[in-house]
Amino acid sequence: MAEEIKMKAIQIDSNAALIVIDVQVGFDDPAFLGKRNNPSADENIQSLIKQWEKHRRPIVVVQHNSKSATSSLHPFKPGNFLKPYVKAITPALRVTKTVNSAFYGEPDLHQWLQGENIKEVVIIGIQTNMCCETTARMAGNLGYNVIFVPDAMHTFDLEGPNGEVLTADELSRATVINLHGGGFAKIALTSDLTADDR
Asked: N or C: which terminus of the chain has fewer CB atoms within 10 Å of its end residue's CB?
């Protein structure tokens, strides 16, 4: 999917916030949500984190605390833990949430971004068509410049109401088209944002 996106280099604000969404251990369990796409997601997420640390741009880490006792992301389950490479960083802000949008978490992401005079956000993490897309749509509605990086995220096959299944790649393509075509976000690849002059 990523190789099908052809983008020109994107310049970003010096204080653009990297929002790392739900990079949690439970998503590595194939019994949790099934078949996933983009095996390079973790590598690309790590590359962007390193780029942001190199340039001392703010990083926001978002963690999902499911209300369902049977979910791998429930706070009492080991799947709730952040993956080690995300747990190791020192973010400018940590947000916990129980719904899809990072803007409905604690502490208040929108309030923090406004207080830091941040107008641009770069969204990466898990899942492409769920929490990442929801956060991107809301960020666009709130007036932020949104950069969505689909090769630094992944999702899972999903079944519809009539038993029709869309693959993770199909869902990711639809998300990219929705966000781009709807004017919610610019679409970029990891390589667009990790060149030395970014």
From this structure: C
